[in-house]
């Protein structure tokens, strides 16, 4: 039963990652001028480890980002509201750094990339439900094209 639940959660995460990747890729190809954002949702509580699905999404994203080496990227980590602010701030920074390290480790060349953790601030869903907390455990990549690439 636990194995089935884990497989089901992994399949759901894979579908979410695919949807975000498709949306981001289309947006990046359509309009370089507008800032873009991609979010990776963390299923695991108290973990900064990237899932296989997240690594695949980042690998695919890297293929698009390599076309635009002068982008500015900010990797922003968030947590749900469980745990103390001190724990959540540290965990959100660890999540953002995990994505940052993965992108750089897979050959990303960009003008500027930074990471920051925001803890449980800026929730996108209610922390009163398990679904809402899962949505709040995320890393967002905010990507802005270099103006010289647009002209």
Describe the structure in your own words.
Residues 31-35 have low confidence and may be disordered. The radius of gyration is 15 Å and the shape is globular. Strands 1-4-2-3 form a four-stranded mixed sheet. It has helices at 2-30, 52-65, 85-105, 130-136, 147-150; strands at 36-41, 72-78, 112-117, 138-144. Helix 1 (2-30) packs parallel to helix 2 (52-65). It has 151 residues and is an alpha+beta fold.
Biggest pleated sheet? 4 strands, mixed
Number of helices: 5
Specify Rg, calculated over alpha carbons. Answer: 15 Å
Strand runs, count: 4
Residue-averaged pLDDT, rounded? 80
> What percent strand?
15-25%
SSE string, helix = H, strand = E? HEHEHEHEH
Largest sheet strand order: 1-4-2-3
User: Portion of residues in helices?
Assistant: 40-55%
Structural class: alpha+beta
Estimate the global geometry from the Cα principal axes: globular
Low-confidence stretches: 31-35
User: Distance between the terminal alpha carbons, to the nearest Å?
Assistant: 55 Å
């Amino acid at each position: 039963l636990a194995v089935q639940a884990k497989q089901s959660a992994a399949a759901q995460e894979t579908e979410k990652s695919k949807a975000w990747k498709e949306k981001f890729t289309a947006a990046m190809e359509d309009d370089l001028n507008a800032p873009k954002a991609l979010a990776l949702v963390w299923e695991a509580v108290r973990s900064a480890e990237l899932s296989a699905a997240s690594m695949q999404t980042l690998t695919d994203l890297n293929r698009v980002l390599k076309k635009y080496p002068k982008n500015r990227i900010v990797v922003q980590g968030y947590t749900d509201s469980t745990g103390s602010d001190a724990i959540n701030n540290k965990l959100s920074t660890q999540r953002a750094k995990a994505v940052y390290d993965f992108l750089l480790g897979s050959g990303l060349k960009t003008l500027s990339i930074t990471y920051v953790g925001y803890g449980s601030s800026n929730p996108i869903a209610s922390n009163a439900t398990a679904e809402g907390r899962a949505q709040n455990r995320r890393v967002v990549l905010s990507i802005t094209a270099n103006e010289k690439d647009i002209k």
